[in-house]
Amino acid sequence: MVAQNVLIGTAVALVVIIAVVIPVAILVPKNNDSNRSGISALTEALPGGTNFPTILPSSFPSLRPSDLEPSASPSIGPSAAPSDFPSGSPSAQPSPSPTSAPTLPPVDPNFEFNLMMHWEREFFWQEEYTERTWCMECMKCNELSGADGNSGCRDSNSNSFDCDNKDQLWLQDCGGRSKGTAVFTIVRHDSSDQIRVQGSDLCLTLVRPRFINLQPCDEADILQRFRGFDRNQPFDLRPVLNDDGCLTQSHHPRAGEVIFNGGCELAYFWNTALWDAIPA
Hints:
This protein is α+β, with helices and mostly antiparallel strands. The protein has two domains: about 1-50, no CATH class; about 115-280, Trefoil (Trefoil (Acidic Fibroblast Growth Factor, subunit A)), CATH 2.80.10.50. It has three helices and twelve strands. A two-stranded antiparallel ribbon has the order 1-12. Strands 2-3 form a two-stranded antiparallel ribbon. A two-stranded antiparallel ribbon has the order 4-5. The radius of gyration is 54 Å and the shape is rod-shaped. The termini are far apart.
């Protein structure tokens, strides 16, 4: 009876060894290589692959990574309706700049005035701060002149208003018709003016780039067109054909200096670029 019990115990021990110890020895390898090969062999042997539980975790992913690129980030919301097609291709070149100046406000054609050189208290003319009133007056010259010389210019009758064809203009004390000061009116066009001697058909005319005289008025003559006139404030007078030039005289003004088309920059430097329209 005792011998039978020993045999039964021995058999049970063998079963335990076979069921537990041997599988553990197989599943617990001694190094990495044997670990990989053991797990691989075990997973291949077991039904369902790695879905069957193992004693040690696998060191490899159970599935092969995907070769597909990740998808783009999802849009926040659905896009609105597609935009309309452009109305047309852009123009090849920008449009040219306007060629004409803005239209000038009207001036009473009956407004009569003297052209007096603008003076201010801080002006230092002829080394003094004394106020001067220099106006344009008609005079006759042996030849066209300007700047410093007067080329034999003279006023044939200083006590009367006597502007004639081809007369030039110089500075004299303002005093109205009794002293021969020229009186003008404006013939206004869209963007420029003719300056006409009152009571005559004579207009201020740019004869050469620098010289000015009186010639019969002609609306089509661009040499008789000037810009800048303003009856309400000081202004410079610029020939349309030479916008860099201003009607002025040479250096500090004084009696007998001829009016010509000089450089605006220098005229402003000497404070001789501006004029006032003084009611006659």
